Amino acid sequence: xxxxxxxxxxxxxxxxxxxxxxxxxxxxxxxxxxxxxxxxxxxxxxxxxxxxxxxxxxxxxxxxxxxxxxxxxxxxxxxxxxxxxxxxxxxxxxxxxxxxxxxxxxxxxxxxxxxxxxxxxxxx
Length: 124
Prior knowledge:
By secondary structure, the protein is mainly beta. 10% of the residues lie in helices and 42% in strands. It has 2 helices and 8 strands, in the order βββαββββαβ. It has helices spanning 30-35, 95-100; strands at residues 2-14, 17-19, 26-28, 43-48, 54-61, 69-72, 84-94, 104-107. It has an 8-stranded mixed beta sheet. A hairpin with a 5-residue loop joins strand 4 and strand 5 (54-61). It is globular.
């Protein structure tokens, strides 16, 4: 049996832009994508802490070092500039792999700068 487990998350990002006219997706600083082990075009779920909306889309890289988190296309109807969001990726794995899996959790500050972590953060 395969289980769907949280692979990684960017926790409490502040949305920096929203573009209704863009064709879709969610633009992220490549530094943030790498910290969360997100590949370009990887499916992500967006949980809007501010507004309560949830949606699925895919991540695309923006400008490195910009700390941008931009909702594009239809997502811009559900996520506004200044909203706090959690961006989560998932992976399917066998039960024995899932039992030992530890997701990547990237905590950020109010400027979307990753907070230093001495030990990996538990996803509990």
